[in-house]
Every structure is written in structure tokens, then in C-alpha cells.
Specification:
By secondary structure, this protein is α+β, with helices and mostly antiparallel strands. Helices cover about 50% and strands about 15% of the residues.
Length: about 220
């Protein structure tokens, strides 16, 4: 009876400790599960599980294990928010698998993605042929985001006998007040162009911009700090 009572108390404490930890980490921790998040969940579950079912482990050990692991996760989360260069290491980068309607075989190879896997991911996005896709981005959580060619989108342009226009992918120019000059250069633009855009929006400096993306046929979209 005493063992049953102790197990009940330890399970209850472990549950509430994990619940508090998830609240502290925020909802975005569950919106996108990266490989690092997956490993973290496994280790945390193992820590609590072993602590609960080991007779020699007490409630204090459970709380201490959850606290230390939660603290490490919080530090890493803070670092990825504060220092952009750490995001690539802990979270990874999205990869463009299909670009301008063509397969990027180098990115597929780098991400260990074969055609059967790609077709499976595309079908989950209602794209049953590669020819329907203008751009496909493999996200850091293993999911794929698809931008279809206009004539295959719903409702289709062919249904209305409309002229088909080229499809363009939005490009991020500023993120967290930091300019991605490489993206600007690839787009065929320069610093003078960016300064002009910010001037038209009555913005004095890049640091005043939280997020700015550019699309060839629609121009810029931005959010201020």
C-alpha cells in the first residue's frame, strides 16, 4: 500500500512538473517538432520515467531532473531567439527541394530524401505530380510546404480561361532587424533599393524592421519592431 501511494504521488508530481515546463517553453515548441525537440522529449521522458519507477529515487530527484533539463532547454531557446547564428545548429534550415518547377537533386541528396518519400509528402499537400509544383520547401520538422503552379491551383486558371502568370517565391530580406544581403543580391537588388523602400515606409534603419519579405510581382511586405 505504501509503494502504491508513493508511486501515485510521484506520478502526480511528475505530471505537474512536465506541465509547468511545457507552459514555460511556450506553444511553439509543439507547433514544430525539430530533431532536437524530439531528442529532448525522449530524454526528459526517460528521466522522469526512471525516477518514478525506481524505488530509490525520491520526489526531489524528479523535480531536480525536470528543473535542470528545463533550464538547459530554456537557455538554448533563449540563445536561438537572441543569436540568429545558433538557429541553424539547433533548429536547422529549410531546404528548397523543388525550385521553378525543377527538382533540386543536390538538396534531396543532402536531406536523404528519395523520390518515393518526396511523392508521399507532396500527396499529403494534394499535389499528385511533381509537374504541379512550382516550389516545395522541406521544413525543419520534416514536413513539406508546397506552392503550386497557377494552372494547377484551386480554382484552376484553365477553368476560367485566364492567362497563366509566372509564380514567384517570397524572399526574406530582413529578419529580427538583420539584413540578409545574400538574398538581396540573389534577387538582383542592392542596398540603395532597400534604403529607398524603407524611406518610403518612413523607416530610418534596418533595426526598426522586425520582418521584411519581397516578392517579384507584389513588392515588399514588412512588420515593424
Amino acid at each position: 500500500m505504501e509503494n502504491l501511494l508513493q508511486t501515485t504521488v510521484e506520478l502526480t508530481v511528475g505530471l505537474f512538473a512536465l506541465l509547468i515546463l511545457t507552459k514555460v517553453m511556450g506553444k511553439t515548441s509543439f507547433a514544430q517538432i525539430t530533431p532536437f525537440d524530439f531528442i529532448s522529449a525522449l530524454i526528459l521522458g526517460e528521466l522522469v520515467g526512471n525516477a518514478i519507477y525506481d524505488d530509490e529515487v525520491r520526489i526531489g530527484t524528479i523535480l531536480f531532473s525536470v528543473f535542470i533539463w528545463g533550464l538547459l532547454l530554456f537557455i538554448i531557446e533563449w540563445a536561438t531567439q537572441r543569436f540568429r547564428k545558433t538557429r541553424k545548429f539547433f533548429e536547422g534550415n529549410p531546404s528548397i527541394i523543388i525550385q521553378n518547377g525543377h527538382l533540386n537533386r543536390n538538396e534531396m541528396k543532402r536531406n536523404k530524401l528519395d523520390m518515393n518519400q518526396l511523392q508521399h509528402l507532396l500527396r499529403q499537400k494534394d499535389a499528385f505530380s511533381v509537374r504541379e509544383v512550382a516550389y516545395a520547401v522541406l521544413e525543419t520538422d520534416g514536413q513539406i510546404s508546397v506552392l503550386k503552379k497557377q494552372k494547377y491551383d484551386q480554382p484552376t486558371f484553365e477553368d476560367f480561361k485566364l492567362k497563366e502568370n509566372p509564380v514567384h517565391l517570397p524572399v526574406t530580406f530582413i529578419n529580427d532587424g538583420i539584413v540578409d544581403w545574400e538574398n538581396i543580391k540573389k534577387a538582383g537588388l542592392d542596398e540603395n533599393w532597400l534604403d529607398k523602400q524603407l524611406y518610403e515606409q518612413r523607416i530610418d534603419h534596418y533595426r526598426d524592421v522586425f520582418y521584411l519579405e519581397w516578392k517579384y510581382d507584389e513588392g515588399i511586405y514588412l512588420e515593424k519592431m
